[in-house]
Each structure stands twice: as C-alpha cells, then as structure tokens.
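Table S2 (continued). Query chain:
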Amino acid sequence: MFNDFKLADDRPVYIQLKEYLKKMIMNGHLLEQQKLPSTRELSTLLGISRNTVLTAYADLEQEGLIYAVKGKGNFIGKVETSKTPYIKLNWKEKVNEDALLADELDLMKHGVRWKKGMISFNSIAPDEKLFDVENFKRAFLTRMSIEGDIVLNYGYAKGYKPLIDYLLHYMEIKGVDISNKDILITNGFTEGLDILLSSLAKKSGRILCENPTHHSALKLFRLHGYDIHGIEMKEDGIDVCQLEKSLSKTDYDFAYLIPSYHNPTGIVTSSEKRIEIMKLFSGYHIPIVEDGFNEELRYSGSHLAPLLAFSGRGNNVIYISSFSKILFPGMRVGWILADKDLIHSLESIKRARTIHTSTLDQAVLYQYLHDGYFEKYLKKAKSVYKKKYELALHACNQYIPFKKMTGDGGLHLFIELENGMNARTLLKKCYQKGVVFSPGDVFYTNGGGSNTIRLGFSRLQEDDIVHGIRIIGDTLKNEMEVKQ
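Corresponding output:
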C-alpha cells in the first residue's frame, strides 16, 4: 500500500498527499477504523518530510475523514463509500434537437483536425507570440492593488462601469453618436449575438446577411431557427442592387453585416456603399446587427467609420464587437453597443444566463486600455500582420492559380478557385502533405462556395506562410492537370 504515490513538481506536497489519501478513503481502499501509519512511518515510506504528513493528516481530520486517538494514532473515520446499483442511459436519445444541430454544425468536431507539425491556415486568432504579457501583468497588479477585493467578487450583469465608460469613449472617437446609447459587456462576440437573438421578437423569422459570412454567426442563426437569406458580395462590399430587390419583396427581422475585413472574404465595404446601405435600411425600418470584426487592422488607406457612426442619433444599428481577434481572446470580453432601451432588456437576459462577465477580466482589460498599452501593442501588431499579409498576398499570386482573391487587410485571404475545382478534395490532398486550411463552403448561406478557401495567416511564421501556400498551389496545379 502507498507504493503508487507519485509526486508532481508543481503542487504543494501536503496537498498531493491529502488528495491521495482522500481518494483511497472515498474509493474504499482504506476502511473505517483502519489505523493509518504514524507520521514518522509514512514520511519515511514516501520520502517526504514529517511536517508534510502532519499537515495532510490535520486537513483530513478537519474534513472529518480521519480522527486521532491520543496515544494511539490516526484512524479512518466513518465515510459512506458504498455505491448504489448503476444504470447506463443513452444520452444521445435524451438531448434535444438544438443540441443535435449544434453538434452537426460544430467544425471543431467534424472539421479536419490539425496535427502537430502541420502548417495550419485554419485560424484567424491573434499570434500569441505578440501578446504583451509584461504590460498585462502590470495592468493586473495595478488593478488588484486598487480594488482587488471588489473585482474578485460578484459583479454587475451590465458590466464593469469603468470599462463601459472607456468603450463608450472609444466608440465616440470612431464617430459614433453615443447619446441615448449604452453598452452591455459580454463573454466575447458569440455570447453577445446569442443574447441578442434570444431577445429579439421573431416576426418573419427571416434575416439578411452577406453571402458568404461568419460561420459562427450562421450557426447561431440556424440554432435560433432563422431562415437565412444571403446577398452576394462585390469587390467593395455587399451587392446593393440585389439587397434592394430583396428588401422590396420580402420582410426581414434584421440584417447581419460585417463591413470591415469581412469574414471570410476580407473585403472592406467602401464609405459610399456604407451610406447606401444605411439609407436603404432606414427606409425599410429594419435593424442592422453590425459585427465590428477586426476594424483596427487596417494597414493602408483612410479610416472608415462603422455603420453605427453613419446612423447618427438613429437607433437602428446594434454594434457587437470584442478585442478577441486583436488582443487577448482568452479573456472573452466583448460588448454590445445599442439603444439604451434595448440594452436594458439584454441586461436581464445576460443576468439570467451567466450573471455577469468576469469582473476580474473586465477590470484588468480596462486598466490595460486605460494605461495606453493597447495603442502601443496595436502599432506592433499591425506592423507584424501587415508583413504577413503582404507575404501571403505575394505567395498566393505567385503559386496559386485562382479565379479571384479578396482580402484588404486583417488576418486572412479568401480565394475562389476555377470552376470545377473542389476545395474539400484539395484539402484532403494538402492534408496528406501537412497543410490545412478552411474550405469556403462552411461560410455560405446556400450551400455554395465549394470552390473557395479561406487562408488565415496570423499565427504562422513567415517561412511557413510561403511554404504552405506553395504546397497548396502545387497540389492544385496537379489537380488541374488531372482534370484536363
């Protein structure tokens, strides 16, 4: 007995011993009233200090798992460890249709799996090597010294007020009229959209969006039972003529648009087209859900204000964003900026579901932003990503035969292959050569895009970007030769 006790280097030894003995007691390996070795015996047997054993025994006694008899030693207490007769349920038959649909739409489960050593163009997450860890630590220590007792307690469903005020100012600088508007802090963009969809009245049950569009948004729309109508993209954004026809013929509950560094195409909607879009939707009194995806990652050209800025004092635009694709996605802090009355309703849904977003995360993020670290980080990040973007753009032009390529910045490029070229077939061949990417069909509302691919380059080293794109291009050329 006790010969299977193994020490880990990164935890206090007395806790490891306590948990080891507790597990043996709860599993019935140590029986009621059984005498434990003396502290001296056990310390010698396990090669640990006697004080460690004393502390572990004291904790176990405090939990009521063992008891001490003066002059005799320590004994196992009365612990109910018997098991009731067990049954095995078929949980696949007990989950609802939403859970089954979510499983079906789950790319992490059903997509191509990345393996160590592969060159992966799947991700458009930020490069963790850029993370400003030292200044993040400073922000953490500063906030903890100011109000550590507060930020470790429950917070407010609406969010941490200093962060809300900062973000309102941040959006005001972008040209947004914040009068009669408010912010709800969420666990990233996805929760924000989910809360919104759970709150809006479903009248027609139909929505408008760009085609293709963000896969995670499509997944949520389908889980909430919406009929999705996609409008094709032009070089400068959504096809306004097609959009106008759709609005004139059919009723829609709302539109979902990504005007900046659109996912997956990377297209930035022009300023002129943003004005046209706002005039159209204002005329039909249809709300717009604007995804503020990667607005900050503009490498060249002038700043383009979000659609929310074009709405002025109007309240028909609901803006959802986060810093996840730029800063620290692990923090899961996003926000919804919308009319005060709507935020008031969304706040109650948030409180009912998750109570609040981590106050600690919000407070540290606020301190990081407040101290000016974000601006410094963004300059460095834009410089690195611009280089990767230009490298990927050049490599695609050099090695991949394509019909069309889009991407005005951001963290990815979108490629339309020649007709008849299947992206999933290409993916299988590239996978065998150690390269993976996102097949474009997952972003389409109507099952299209079988000849499209999205290449995310943000987390790759420069050499891997060029090498990976060359492998994709060579593989594609071989496929085209076979088809000829």
